[in-house]
């Protein structure tokens, strides 16, 4: 059944549909809660957001009566470019819509928002995979590889309460066959959060269609950031060449995604130590 529009006051029908688009997009973008949202810094006029990184001080055992050497801090930065201008548009032919048994305008808006949500997830996955440090033993997911991922993240000072294991549907099938995943003491609590299919070594496991069959990855929330400079907006204009009441509708949003902590610990200049992958 299609959603109905109820107007509590002087809110326009377009405002209400835009709110529906926002709600549907948040529901479809399953990976947003697993990374860091820095939208508050994506202010008007900004083209990017920088994340400064400082080196650490080295403590020396200064000899009595001798001068100590000063240590210099070096500053670098990870930069999130606000350069993803996501856009989708469609035509509402009122002659066809009026003969449909569904609320065509609402259903089209919901599907556009779902497509936007999947697009956001795919951009996150692309960034995570590009910045991930590969596991040492290639191949399908195994208990040994999961142990290695957990170990490497711990050594990178990851907050393990904010770590997730993301698997493709094909890797999920293999994971389900692992005794370590099926055992209750490894699987985890029966109280499973939304989007999580279980636990292994205390790490929540999520499945996502945006990964290719061979892909799986483990990452911490602060390993990647997303910033929305312009949230999902919807507008419409007349398209009377398709009939007097026909409309052309568009939904767009402007955002950026960036892996963080690049070139730290055992990672290269293009990798984050807080992302471990097989892809």
Structure in words:
With 279 residues, the protein is an alpha/beta fold. The protein has helices spanning 13-28, 94-97, 104-131, 143-155, 169-176, 179-182, 184-187, and strands at residues 36-37, 48-54, 75-81, 84-92, 133-134, 163-167, 196-200, 203-207, 216-220, 224-238, 247-259, 275-278. The strands form three sheets. A six-stranded mixed β-sheet has the order 5-12-9-6-8-7, with helices on both faces. The longest helix has 28 residues, at 104-131. It is flat. It contains seven helices and twelve strands.
Kindly summarize this structure in a few lines:
The protein has 279 residues and is of the alpha/beta class.
How many whole angstroms does the radius of gyration measure? 24 Å
Mean pLDDT: 84
Distance N terminus to C terminus? 40 Å
Arrangement of strands in the largest sheet:
5-12-9-6-8-7
Structural class: alpha/beta
| Strand segment count | 12
| Strand content bin | 25-35%
Unreliable spans are 1-11
Q: What is the number of helical segments per DSSP (H or I, 4+ residues)? A: 7
Tell the overall outline: flat
Order of helices and strands: HEEEEHHEHEHHHEEEEEE
Helix content: 25-40%
Main β-sheet: number of strands, strand sense, barrel status?
A: 6 strands, mixed
